[in-house]
Design brief:
Cofactor: Mo-molybdopterin
Strand content: 35-45%
Helix content: under 10%
InterPro entries: Ig_E-set (IPR014756), MoCF_OxRdtse_dimer (IPR005066), Mopterin_OxRdtase_euk (IPR008335), OxRdtase_Mopterin-bd_dom (IPR000572), OxRdtase_Mopterin-bd_sf (IPR036374), OxRdtase_Mopterin_BS (IPR022407)
CATH architecture of the largest domain: Alpha-Beta Complex
CATH superfamily of the largest domain: Oxidoreductase, molybdopterin-binding domain
Distance between the termini: 39 Å
Number of strands: 23
Largest sheet: 5 strands, mixed
Number of helices: 6
Keywords: Heme, Iron, Metal-binding, Molybdenum, Oxidoreductase
Bound molecules: ligand MTE, molybdenum atom
Order of helices and strands: EEEEHEHEHEEHEEEEHEEEEEEEEEEHE
Protein name: Sulfite oxidase
Structural class: mainly beta
CATH class of the largest domain: Alpha Beta
Oligomer: single chain
Shape: globular
Number of domains: 2
């Protein structure tokens, strides 16, 4: 067992703060086991005492609340949602190959995982607090103070009030029917299905209803800057603040560098459409994009989950490139090359998936 109860073969990009992804082939199941779920942190993982911990709900509300974990569990109906979390930096490594992105974790395709989340619906808690009419955003603050932020501050984020009051957004205390692990935000985290992982704030301490988006460093740090921007000079209001996930695809098997015979080979992968969209088609190619076949695509288990796909491709002997591309239910397409979507912080790489393979005859 590796650190934070993760499997031994996690690809650990950093141990402090802990940033790790599973090998791609470990993501072929619909639900990701806890020891396999990726971990993304901007500060040391705090160990909070669940009995003295309180959640504050304040801001533009009629009745500010202060809730213990027990009160939260007793006063609100329990809800369970199967949802995929994906870091906005997933597949940054492919962007880095095109042009370097210093100071950011070089994620492969494994910064994505799916779990059953159990908790109270954020909408129910906000109803109890009584949102005032001018509320436009719901802000979250965690307990972990990040030195990556300027100035150092607890990790925070916000989501639009319309999303926050949708039934799928949870305040979760359990993951895959186990108590939420410390590394994933115990005793309580936000889970915002369909949005980039950074909005699902862990070690949640405070929820504030407000008229403006959060001014937390990480709210605006997770934004898409134009290629020519200097990320050190960027601040609030620069670029596109990231919310709903952009359509994603990855090849999971065969793995990078696996020796393969030429001839028919099963290729499997995953695709994920953001917000309440679904993936509607996946094409794969074994000849660098000259010809394509349509993959078998699983229906999503819920509007908030990834979808696995598979296809049998006839691989030529020698070198070739496997390609995969996806469409979503809003007919969004993917760009061919990471070069098109390169951005200074390396977020939201939604280019076609590519895998270089060499086959024996
Ligand atoms: N408090 C807090 N919440 C956080 C983070 C963090 O560093 N601190 N990281 C965010 C990011 S960028 C992602 S992608 C997800 C990762 O969740 P996981 O570690 O449970 O996989 O948590 C989000 N919530
Ligand atoms: Mo993230």
């Amino acid at each position: 067992m590796g650190i934070w109860n993760k499997r031994d073969d996690m690809i650990v990009h950093q141990s402090e703060p802990y940033n790790a992804e599973p090998p791609p082939g470990a993501l072929v199941d619909a639900v990701t086991p806890l020891d396999t779920f990726y971990g993304r942190n901007h500060a040391p993982i705090p160990r909070l005492d669940g009995t003295s911990w309180r959640l504050r709900v304040d801001g533009t509300v009629d009745r500010p609340l202060e809730l213990s974990l027990d009160e939260l569990r007793r006063r609100f109906p329990e809800r369970k949602v199967l949802a995929t979390l994906q870091c906005a930096g997933n597949r940054r490594a492919d962007l880095v190959e095109f042009r370097d992105i210093p100071g950011q974790v070089p994620w492969g395709p494994g910064a994505i995982s799916t779990a059953w989340w159990t908790g109270a619906s954020l909408a129910d808690v906000l109803t109890e607090a009584g949102l005032q009419a001018e509320t436009a955003h719901i802000a979250f603050i965690g307990a972990d103070v990040s030195q990556d932020a300027d100035p150092p501050q607890p990790f925070g984020a916000s989501i639009p009030a319309a999303k926050a009051t949708s039934s799928e957004v949870l305040l979760a205390w359990a993951m895959n029917d186990q108590a939420l692990p410390a590394a994933h935000g115990a005793p309580l985290r936000a889970v915002v299905p369909g949005y980039i992982g950074a909005r699902s704030v862990k070690w949640l301490q405070r929820i504030t209803a407000q008229t403006e988006p959060s001014d937390n460093y990480f709210q605006w740090e997770y934004s898409l800057l134009p290629p020519e921007a200097d990320p050190r000079k960027a601040g609030p209001g620069d670029g596109i603040t990231l919310g709903p996930v952009v359509i994603h695809i990855a090849i999971l098997r065969p793995g990078k560098g696996t020796p393969l015979p030429s001839g028919p080979t099963e290729v499997t992968g995953v695709a994920f459409a953001g917000d309440d969209r679904m993936v509607t088609r996946v094409d794969v190619s074994a000849d660098g994009g000259t010809t394509w076949v349509q993959a078998d695509l699983n229906a999503p288990d819920t509007p908030w989950t990834w979808q696995h796909w598979r296809a049998t491709l006839t691989l030529p002997s020698g070198e070739t490139e496997l390609l995969a591309r996806a469409w979503d239910s809003a007919a969004a397409v993917q760009p061919e090359s990471p070069a098109t979507v390169w951005n200074p912080k390396g977020y939201a790489n939604n280019a076609w998936a590519r895998l270089h393979v060499t086959c024996d005859r």
